[in-house]
Design a protein that fits this description.
The chain is α/β, with parallel strands linked by helices. The protein has 11 helices and 10 strands. Helix 3 (65-74) links the parallel strand 3 and strand 4 (81-85).
Length: 305
């Protein structure tokens, strides 16, 4: 017997509620569909029970889908969300991306598309739950400052990790993110930069790294040579703003992380398997085996032949 999947469907149009509900039920009898007519009603339902997927319209009376999604994320619910709207725009699509919305659907919608996307969202959520990193329970000061930094910078996600690649704390949208691998790879990048600095004859380690793509950018900053503050943000964000709020956050986090109580909490909670994972990553990046060298005369001979 298939595990029951609970889906919350939110729309102020009764015809849409009926059509989508029936279409999903016919596609999979393991779906339990609960409906709401606006964001406020949906929040009341969410306060009473949990769901595996939320599908919501954008434009509704009292509270629309955007505000509902903001409330869901502020409550720390990592449930996948799908948006439906007849008033789509590029700005709304970018906002959906920033808020970690699984998909953005434009009305009128094809029922087959809704079924397929709902199934994809549920399968992705199950896979992420299996790979979810168990983070240590730390002092509230750390979590509050991380949340403040995310709010100030409008970042998708803020991740604090050790220089050894062990995740310590995370706030924001984690859907689609492999936290353990991201932590290990960014830490490996800093270790690689240390090797580069040695090659350049520098004693100090580079303090930051920046990776840019057409969707997500990653800005990472070293804290006290023990931790990395990793910021994941959209391409529309200004790098100068990220840099400014990073500097402020780093100053506060240095003071918080210097607390012996928190330092002991982190040390006691870190699992050895993260270090092993990082070792595997580094084995593929930093190959320290000796390489054959070619003398200048051999190079000239090769070029002239």
């Amino acid at each position: 017997m298939l595990a029951l999947k609970r889906i919350l469907l939110v729309d102020d149009d009764n015809m849409v509620l009926f059509a989508v509900s029936e279409g999903l039920r016919l596609a999979n009898d393991s779906y339990e569909i609960v409906t709401a007519k606006n964001g406020y009603e949906a929040l009341n339902i969410l306060n009473e029970s949990s769901f595996d997927l939320i599908i919501t319209d954008i434009k509704m009376p009292q509270m629309g889908g955007v505000q509902l999604t903001q409330k869901i994320r502020s409550l720390g619910l990592d449930v996948p969300v799908i948006w439906m709207t007849a008033f789509g725009s590029q700005g709304l699509k970018e906002q959906a991306q920033r808020m970690g919305v699984h998909r953005f659907l434009s009305k009128p919608m094809d029922m087959n598309d809704i079924r397929q996307i709902a199934q994809e969202a549920l399968e992705t959520a199950v896979l992420q739950q299996k790979n979810k990193v168990s983070l240590p329970k730390l002092d509230d000061r750390l979590q509050k400052r991380m949340k403040q930094f995310r709010s100030e910078s409008s970042a998708h996600m803020i991740l604090l990790t050790t220089m050894g690649g062990n995740p310590v704390d995370v706030v924001g949208v984690t859907e689609g993110m492999d936290i353990a691998s991201l932590s290990a790879l960014v830490a490996a990048n800093f270790l690689a930069s240390r090797e580069i600095s040695h090659l350049l004859g520098r004693d100090s380690v580079f303090k930051l790294s920046y990776h840019e793509s057409n969707q997500h950018n990653i800005y990472a900053y070293c804290i006290s040579d023990k931790y990395l503050l990793i910021t994941v943000f959209g391409s529309e964000a200004k790098l100068g703003v990220i840099w400014y709020y990073t500097q402020r956050a780093v100053a506060d986090l240095e003071e918080i992380l210097a607390d012996k109580y928190i330092e002991d909490q982190v040390s006691n909670a870190i699992d050895d398997r993260f270090g092993a994972d990082l070792g595997k990553v580094l084995d593929g990046i930093l190959d320290t085996s000796p390489r054959p060298t070619t003398a200048p005369s051999q190079v000239r001979k090769s070029l002239n032949s």
